[in-house]
Write a structure and sequence with these properties.
Helix content: 10-25%
CATH class of the largest domain: Alpha Beta
CATH architecture of the largest domain: Alpha-Beta Barrel
Oligomer: single chain
Length: 449
C-alpha cells in the first residue's frame, strides 16, 4: 500500500467511525441524527403473510445494509392491524431493524385511526425514533396538513417526514410549520428523458433550509431531507389507468451516485415489494403478493440481485464518501439487468415513455444489458450474449458502470463473468406472445442468493 492509499484508507476509516457515532466536523454541532436507509414496503400485499415471512424479509433487508421498512399503509385493508403487529414482532425479535408507518393518502384517513396506529406502536423497540419521537411518513396527503397538529398533540409528538411531491420543493417549503422534514418521491426520469439528475433534491434541501454537507456528513439541521432511490419502473395496469415505463437503464447506479453527492439525512428505496410497478428488490414468494395483471410481467423476472451492490453504496453514504468503495469483508460483485426482448420485438402495448410522456416507451427504451461492478482493485468483467463474442470491460477500484447493446441479431442467454465465476441469466429473444414486456430481469456474480 502506497502513502496515498494509506491516507485515503485512514480518512475513510475516520469518516466511517464519525458516521456511526453521529459526529460532524462542526464544533457547535457535534451530535446529529445518524443517517439511515429505509425501503418502502407495500403492506397491502401481505394479506397472507406469516410471522416467518416477515422475519425472512427483515433479515434479507438487514443483510444488505437496510436499516428499516417504511410500511405503506391504507386504512381500508382488513389485515392492516394483524400484519403491522407481525411486522413489529418480527423486527423486535431480529433486532437492529426499525419500522415506521407511511400513511398512504391515496385513501381517506380518519384522524383518530392515524392517532391510534401511532400510539399503538410508538413504544415498540422496533419503532424508528428520531429526536425522541416516533418517525412518521406519508405517500402524498398535503390536503391533510391541518390535521397533523392534532395528531402531534394526541400522540405526545411525532417526527413527520411526508412525501408531498405533488407540491414540489417550493410548495413543501411553504408548509414547514407542519413538518420535520420532507421525502421526495421523484426517483425516476421524467417523461421522454433517459436520465435524471439531483437538481430537484437540491431544491428540496434549499426549501427545507438545509445546510450543505460537511466532511463527515450533513449538519444537524432543523428539517431533514429523505431522498428517494429506485432501481426501475414499469407498470401496465389498465384497471388503474397505469401504463408507462421510465428509463431505467442506468438508474440504479446513477441515483446511488447522486445520493453520495447530495448526502441527504435519510434515504428511502422505492421499493421493496411493489411488483405492480416493477420497482421491487425482493421477489414475490406467493402469487397473491402480485396485483392482478402484473403477473404477466413479473413472473420469471427476478430482481433480488439488485440488492447485491447495496452494502457498498450504503456504507459509502453513511461514511460521507462521494464514491462507493468495496467493503473489505465482502467479495467483488457484479450485477446485470436487462429486458428479455428488443423494444421492437412485438406490439408496443401503448406503453408511454415516462409518466405523462407523449412518446412511446418502444421509442425511448434502450436495448442494452446494464452492468454495475464493485471491485477492490482493477479487474475484468466479461459479458457474453448467446453465441456471440465475449465482451470484456475493465473496472476501477470501487464502482463501475457499463452497457452492452443487443438487437434482433444478438439473442440467447446472458452470461456474466467475474473472478472466474460465471452466472447465466435468462435468454434474450424475440418471441413476444402479446406485447413487449418492459420489465427487467437481474442477475449477479457470484450468485449467492
Amino acid at each position: 500500500m502506497g502513502w496515498r492509499d494509506f491516507i485515503d484508507s485512514t480518512r475513510d476509516a475516520i469518516a466511517e467511525i464519525g458516521a456511526e457515532i453521529g459526529v460532524t466536523d462542526e464544533p457547535e454541532k457535534r451530535i446529529k441524527c445518524p443517517k439511515m436507509v429505509f425501503a418502502h414496503y407495500m403492506l397491502g400485499l401481505t394479506v397472507n403473510h406469516t410471522y416467518q415471512d416477515w422475519e425472512d424479509e427483515i433479515r434479507a433487508a438487514k443483510e444488505c445494509g437496510i436499516d428499516g421498512f417504511a410500511l405503506n399503509t391504507g386504512p381500508q385493508d382488513h389485515w392492516l392491524n394483524e400484519q403491522l403487529a407481525l411486522a413489529y414482532q418480527a423486527a423486535e425479535r431480529v433486532g437492529g431493524f426499525v419500522l415506521f408507518i407511511s400513511f398512504d393518502f391515496a385513501f381517506e384517513w380518519p384522524v383518530q385511526q392515524v392517532i391510534d396506529l401511532i400510539n399503538r406502536f410508538k413504544y415498540s423497540p422496533a419503532q424508528c425514533v428520531v429526536d425522541g419521537r416516533p418517525f412518521v411518513s406519508t405517500f402524498e396527503g398535503p390536503q391533510w396538513a391541518d390535521n397533523w397538529p392534532l395528531v402531534r398533540q394526541a400522540t405526545g409528538g411525532i417526527f413527520l417526514v411526508p412525501d408531498w411531491a405533488s407540491l414540489g420543493p417550493h410548495g413543501v417549503g411553504q408548509k414547514l410549520q407542519y413538518i420535520d422534514g420532507a421525502f421526495s418521491w421523484d426517483a425516476w426520469p421524467k417523461g421522454c428523458n433517459h436520465k435524471m439528475g439531483p437538481d430537484e433534491d437540491h431544491l428540496y434541501m434549499e426549501a427545507l433550509q438545509i445546510e450543505k454537507p460537511g466532511i463527515f456528513g450533513t449538519p444537524n439541521n432543523k428539517h431533514k431531507y429523505m431522498m428517494g432511490v429506485s432501481p426501475y419502473f414499469y407498470t401496465n395496469l389498465p384497471q388503474w389507468n397505469k401504463n408507462w415505463y421510465c428509463s431505467s437503464e442506468s438508474l440504479w447506479y446513477d441515483r446511488w451516485q447522486q445520493i453520495l453527492e447530495v448526502q441527504p439525512d435519510f434515504v428511502e428505496i422505492i421499493t421493496w415489494n411493489d411488483y405492480g410497478e416493477s420497482s421491487y428488490i425482493y421477489d414475490p414468494h406467493r402469487d397473491d403478493q402480485v396485483v392482478p395483471g402484473a403477473d404477466t410481467y413479473v413472473k420469471g423476472y427476478s430482481h433480488d440481485a439488485y440488492r447485491a451492490i447495496l452494502p457498498h453504496f450504503i456504507q459509502a453514504y453513511k461514511a460521507g464518501k462521494t464514491k462507493a468503495k468495496p467493503r473489505e469483508n465482502l467479495e467483488d460483485v457484479a450485477i446485470a439487468w436487462y429486458r428479455r426482448t428488443p423494444a421492437s420485438a412485438g406490439h408496443h402495448g401503448e406503453t408511454a415513455w415516462g409518466q405523462g410522456g407523449d412518446a412511446l416507451a418502444a421509442h425511448g427504451a434502450k436495448d442494452v444489458i446494464s452492468v454495475v461492478a464493485i471491485t477492490k482493485e482493477e479487474n475484468t468483467v466479461t459479458v457474453t450474449l448467446g453465441d456471440g463474442q465475449p465482451r470484456e470491460f475493465q473496472t476501477t477500484r470501487g464502482s463501475t458502470y457499463f452497457e452492452v447493446p443487443f438487437d434482433e441479431s444478438t439473442l440467447g442467454p446472458v452470461r456474466l463473468q467475474l473472478n472466474g465465476q460465471v452466472t447465466e441469466g435468462p435468454d434474450i429473444h424475440c418471441n413476444c406472445e402479446d406485447k413487449v414486456n418492459f420489465n427487467s430481469v437481474v442477475i449477479q456474480v457470484p450468485d449467492r442468493r
